[in-house]
Design goal:
113 residues, mainly beta, 4-stranded antiparallel sheet
């Protein structure tokens, strides 16, 4: 059974930082592209960042480029998202996605003014 469990979210002030983690199990993590998405209530998913199986060529949404960094540890089956200089508009529920197929339950990130 594929499992993706996010952690590291919370409440932070504008300009602060958080690091999200996604622990993966139930599949061969090192062979899959992984990504982070976020969703605000009433809106669809926004793809935040993607990383291929080898950890090369990260891609970012324009809204987070230069502030967020995606990484992965294939030995530990963990995907990370380092989020710096957070802004109130980054407030959302963040999800770890396996491509194709699965996503985690999500973790709330709230950025106050």
């Amino acid at each position: 059974e594929v499992r993706l469990v996010e952690s590291g979210g919370g409440l932070v002030q504008s300009g602060g930082s958080l690091r999200l983690s996604c622990v993966a199990s139930g599949f061969n993590f090192s062979t899959y592209e992984m990504s982070w998405h976020r969703r605000v209530p009433g809106r669809g998913f926004e793809r935040v960042s993607t990383m291929n199986s080898d950890g090369d060529s990260p891609a970012y949404a324009a809204s987070v480029k230069g502030r967020f960094t995606i990484s992965r540890d294939n030995a530990k089956n963990i995907l990370y998202l380092q989020m710096n200089n957070l802004k109130p508009e980054d407030t959302a529920k963040y999800y770890c996605f396996k491509t194709p197929g699965s996503r985690g339950q999500g973790i709330q990130v709230t950025v106050s003014e």
